[in-house]
Amino acid sequence: MHILVLGAAGMVGRKLTERLLRDGRLGKSDITRMTLQDVVAPAQPADSGFPVGTVTCDFAVAGAAEKLVAERPDVIFHLAAIVSGEAELDFDKGYRINLDGTRMLLDAIRLIGNGYKPRVVFTSSIAVFGAPFPDKIGDEFFNTPLLSYGTQKAIDELLLADYTRRGFMDGIGIRLPTICIRPGLPNKAASGFFSNILREPLAGKEAILPVSDDVRHWVASPRAAVHLLAASRAAARLAGRAFVTPDDVAKMAPAVLRHRIALTPDAELERYRPDDAIAAAVRSVPVPR
Amino acid sequence: MHILVLGAAGMVGRKLTERLLRDGRLGKSDITRMTLQDVVAPAQPADSGFPVGTVTCDFAVAGAAEKLVAERPDVIFHLAAIVSGEAELDFDKGYRINLDGTRMLLDAIRLIGNGYKPRVVFTSSIAVFGAPFPDKIGDEFFNTPLLSYGTQKAIDELLLADYTRRGFMDGIGIRLPTICIRPGLPNKAASGFFSNILREPLAGKEAILPVSDDVRHWVASPRAAVHLLAASRAAARLAGRAFVTPDDVAKMAPAVLRHRIALTPDAELERYRPDDAIAAAVRSVPVPR
Hints:
Two copies of one chain form a homodimer.
Chain A lengths: L1 E5 L4 H13 L1 E2 L2 E2 L2 E6 L13 E5 L7 H6 L5 E4 L5 H6 L1 H22 L6 E7 L22 H18 L4 E7 L1 E2 L13 H10 L16 E2 L1 H17 L7 H12 L7 H5 L4 H11 L5
Parallel strand pairs in A: 1-4, 1-6, 4-5, 6-7, 7-8, 9-10
Antiparallel strand pairs in A: 2-3
């Protein structure tokens, strides 16, 4: 199986590539080749059990998409995008990359024809949704994006669905929330401050909250979530069970989450501990039935 | 006020043009000029109180949109489109006209700048919606179009909303249902048979229903609806009232609708009259509160 990753040098692209290299397989198929593309040079992996090529190019210029798909990769992860803040500041660039680039990619796949029908995994965004929000936002909530970025992602989803219905590809869009905590310096995403307000205090620095403190937002910290799931599975296995119970999760939560929590000076003065915060959080989550 | 109508030679375009010429005004402004565009030559109106120009061109080729908006029309009705059946049969043509053409128009308006901000009225379609449908389909129902045509209209709506939010225009999209009864020959709309099954029997001809007879669909017959409203207003005025009551509508319904109804031979044999059908329909509509 040949996997092409567009936007491989970004945060999600790097994490995805790392994981695919480690697993050596995707679903039930062995990976036999990978191609990593980005507009800045993707890092060449040190060792992998199969050939990994890198391509440095703007995928949204004429002819680029055709070259990228010419060798018919079986799975294409399309993560390449201009982030929200930049797409809002530079109208033309946002539409060129996020809409035209994606459409060029889909058309390049379509025009190969001859039965070529790759799996296309597209990272959309919760920015396709617009206020006012209900308490629970389902996939059936309508798309009234508040930014050009969300507009472009919503349009890409519509294209992906139509091209899939037509039989040109097997596409799926995933609406990612804000991924926290971004390492290193902030990027130009409008939601970047969600990482800042978590990262900077952990490093003992001040962080500015640019929105009202009653703003609710959906974020994902994949590492903690994945490790909590893995630890809970291990706990279930050690207890001789083939299934995870809510108690397994509650039992492993302190070990997985303790070092990820920084207390306020006030809480520390009151001898409040991270474990108290975790216990309170665990208590506040209803047991699923 | 200068009004530009794109797609002026189509059914809705002709009806709209006729009405604007008759009224001589739109909202509170006098019309001082009109430009009628279509890919087939729009008819030159016989007499009008102001200059009416006609343009025959494909609005979706490079440079066409710029020319059309160069004289900064105040209101643009954008009705030009490839209909559903044709957009489904000819993938490239549908996307070129319904998506690229609309985007070229919006960009041509945007790039004039200098405070130019026309009213853009875009005819979208109920094809933006996809099954399964709830009993009532509101504007907040999500867009999962089942055809490329609906996909293109949904994308255009997203563009219109973003360009409006950015301040490039004052856009509004209207999701038209199937307009019945289309005069003359069927066009290439997938929904054309809704007109056929009404038009052909009225002319004593056979019509084929290509879908199951429990299919429910949303149609609009603007003339009957407009005349029923006008007659009801007149009835209210004659009764010395400034407002229309449900009884006014019920009273005028037979006169407006009687000649629009063709009975089945079975119903005729049973001495059922069109007025009986209208009375039954009026009784079945709950009085609004």
